[in-house]
Design goal:
With 270 residues, this protein is mainly β. It has two helices and 13 strands. The chain has a single domain, classed as OB fold (Dihydrolipoamide Acetyltransferase, E2P). Strands 1, 2, 3, 4, 5, 6, 7, 8, 9, 10, 11, 12 and 13 form a 13-stranded mixed beta sheet that branches.
Length: 270
């Protein structure tokens, strides 16, 4: 599972590029609004097909809602991007959606003695970092860093769960927000790091290695028994009137041959 829905603003005009000899994509740099004390998150948005063609008219600075995209991470360039989904124009009054769902496997065992992995603050907060590998097909996967924060009074102790129950190979589904941490290093150069801030998570169920019972079929049909249809065969058949409209039942009239064809709005969304 790799699903993103987010509110964003275009930082440039969308452009069409060739991704193969016969296929194109529409690309545009977008920014997700900052959350809390975090920095804005800049991502390259890649759209395909009709969704890309409609997005070509978007101006720089447009407010858009992205739905159903996939988050990708290029380890060589250390950049994140969004791929696919659909985009709709919105106003600056649109709610700040920033929602990502990822399913995969944890890639490492945690060293809880390392403060970069696990730490508690003077305010009583617990912070834990982990990484997840998400399959993207053809024996390839994306790697994402994520973290959780909780206090002792929180109902959901996600940081504690990550620290205690995740290790290399453990299956995990998480839901969170895409955030960017920004700081200056010792030389004064500005640095940034994109992570997933976890709000909810579900660990995969543990396999019971002691239970070696084979799976048995719970429903069988004898080979000599005739398979009967699920529908009531005693009901009157009316192949020319399958929805029984003549007797007052069934569905309302459909457009086209059953009624007037509605006019379509061909206006582009941007």
């Amino acid at each position: 599972m790799n699903f993103v829905s987010a509110y964003a603003q275009t930082l440039e005009e969308p452009r069409q590029v060739f991704i193969s000899a016969s296929a194109t994509a529409v690309r545009c740099l977008v920014a997700l609004p900052p959350i809390g004390n975090k920095a804005p998150t800049q991502l390259e948005l890649n759209l395909y097909g009709k969704n890309g063609e409609r997005f070509l008219g978007a101006p720089k600075g447009a407010h858009v809602y992205i739905y159903g995209a996939q988050l990708r991470h290029d380890l060589e360039t250390r950049t994140h991007s969004l791929h696919g989904g659909s985009v709709a124009p919105v106003t600056d009054q649109f709610p700040i959606y920033n929602d990502v769902i990822l399913s995969g496997r944890c890639v490492k065992d945690l060293d809880l003695s390392d403060p970069k992995v696990f730490k508690t603050t003077a305010d009583g907060l617990m912070i834990c970092n982990q990484s997840i590998s998400v399959n993207k097909g053809k024996n390839q996967a994306d790697l994402f860093n994520f973290y959780a924060i909780n206090s002792s009074t929180d109902k959901l102790n996600n940081a504690e769960l990550i620290a205690n129950f995740t290790r290399k190979g453990v299956g995990l589904t998480l839901r969170g927000r895409i955030v960017t941490e920004s700081w200056k290093d010792e030389s004064g150069e500005k640095r940034s790091n994109v992570k997933i801030q976890v709000s909810k998570m579900t660990l995969a169920p543990k396999a019971n290695v002691n239970d070696a019972r084979p799976i048995q079929s719970q429903a069988t049909i004898a080979s000599e028994q005739e398979v009967k249809p699920l529908w009531n065969t005693n009901a009157p058949q009316a192949s020319s009137d399958p929805w029984n409209v003549a007797s007052g039942g069934g569905l309302p009239d459909l457009p086209g041959q059953y009624g007037p064809v509605p006019e379509l709005d061909d206006n582009e969304p941007f």
